[in-house]
Design brief:
The complex is a heterodimer of chains A (245) and B (65). With 245 residues, chain A is of the alpha/beta class. Chain A has nine helices and seven strands; from the N terminus they run αββαβααβααβαβααβ. Chain A has one domain: Rossmann fold. With 65 residues, chain B is an alpha+beta fold. Chain B has a two-stranded antiparallel sheet with strand order 1-4. Classes of the chains: A alpha/beta (245), B alpha+beta (65). Chains A and B meet through α1, α7 and α9 of A and α1, α2 and β4 of B.
Chain lengths: 245, 65
């Protein structure tokens, strides 16, 4: 079979909304774990947000961290079980608002941990409030007129915040089209390989849709990512210590 | 042989597969699954086994032979 669903995800149980981006990202993680033969070694610490639903249908070992703080938990997992792959599964709200201090300090310490950030430009689970990455003009539950620079400041870019830092890897991918999904898988695989080799802090952000809180159909959401979100948040590799393969 | 296997009970009717199939081989079936979503159907004759539907489907409906 040319394309086979990974066995690491119990697919019938997924409770995400129609067209949610979490499913595709999970499939990429599952495929990579099978390719690297590391499914048994992966420990995922999720956030208390939409990503936490994963604990019900992943066949990986999982921990639900405190909201915004999966990173220190995941760093601790790696310290006490150095043979593990330790992934912190975060949303934009967790990584760049509530857990901003934890994200910055994990990077400053160059902790041996993998931060995966699903950036859907909102606090999704709580009903779609403004996050650090909400787009200017975007209407949310807490910015009903649209995000304004004077009120909420400018959209946050992790590549600027971590620019020049001595970390192993930093990349941003998207899943709005087939070529982007394939590219994002390459970023994730590079990041997992670096993490497997204990090279230090790796962070991969993925632009994902939240059709429910964007008030759009899934197809319209992917169009929005291509035409607006990817213009604000460029995809690519920003830091790759030691060079590529 | 079926080029694509589908498990339509998993389908949540997002129609990202329809938007991304290069051969317009996927359409709505007019039928509803147990979750309550109108699922899709693949025209085997039009399909070229490219795997785009597998790549974009958030609910793992497709496997490609
Ligand atoms: C300490 C704490 N503060 C607030 C909350 C409420 N809360 C749950 S999910 C969430 C926002 C999540 O946004 P994000 O991290 O972007 O994840 P998403 O749901 O969008 O995937 C908030 C504020 C919480 N669970 N714990
Ligand atoms: S609210 Fe948004 S992020 Fe959460 S499951 Fe639904 S579509 Fe996905
Ligand atoms: S992409 Fe998957 S879930 Fe969405 S309509 Fe197609 S088969 Fe159904
Ligand atoms: S494999 Fe390609 S051509 Fe066949 S149904 Fe899927 S997207 Fe269409
Ligand atoms: Mg979010």
């Amino acid at each position: 079979m040319k394309y086979k669903v990974p066995t690491t995800v119990d697919v019938m149980k997924t409770t995400f909304c129609s067209g949610c981006g979490q499913g595709v990202v999970n499939r990429l993680i599952g495929e990579i774990m099978e390719e690297l033969g590391t499914a048994e070694k992966l420990v995922v610490t999720t956030d208390v947000a939409c990503g936490a639903m994963n604990v019900d249908f992943w066949n990986f070992d999982t921990i639900v961290g405190a909201h915004g703080r999966p990173l220190p938990t995941a760093t601790a997992v790696k310290k006490v079980r150095p043979d593990c792959l330790s992934l912190a599964h975060l949303g934009d709200g967790a990584a760049y608002n509530i857990g901003m201090a934890e994200t910055m300090h994990a990077a400053i310490r160059d902790d041996d941990v993998f931060a995966l950030v699903l950036n859907n430009c909102v606090f999704a689970m709580t009903g779609g409030q403004t996050s650090a990455t909400t787009m200017l003009g975007q209407k949310t539950k807490s910015s009903i007129q649209g995000r304004k620079v004077e009120v909420e400041g400018k959209p946050f870019h992790i590549e600027n915040a971590l620019s020049g830092m001595d970390i192993a890897y930093l990349a941003r991918g998207s899943i709005e089209s087939v070529p982007s999904i394939r590219k994002t898988k390459q970023y994730l695989k590079t990041a997992f390989e670096k993490h497997k080799n204990n090279e230090g802090f790796v962070l991969v952000e993925i632009l994902t849709p939240c059709p429910t809180n964007w008030g759009m159909t899934p197809v319209e959401s992917m169009k929005r990512i291509k035409e607006e979100v990817m213009v604000e948040y460029p995809v690519g590799e920003f830091i790759n210590r030691g060079g590529g393969k | 042989m079926q080029k694509v296997n589908t498990d339509v009970e998993r389908c949540k009717g997002c129609y990202l597969c329809i938007a991304n199939c290069p051969k317009e081989a996927i359409k709505k079936s007019g039928k509803v699954n147990l979750k309550g979503y109108e699922y899709i159907i693949v025209d085997n004759d039009k399909c070229i086994s490219c795997g785009s539907c597998y790549q974009v489907c958030p609910d793992y409906v497709f496997e490609v032979n």
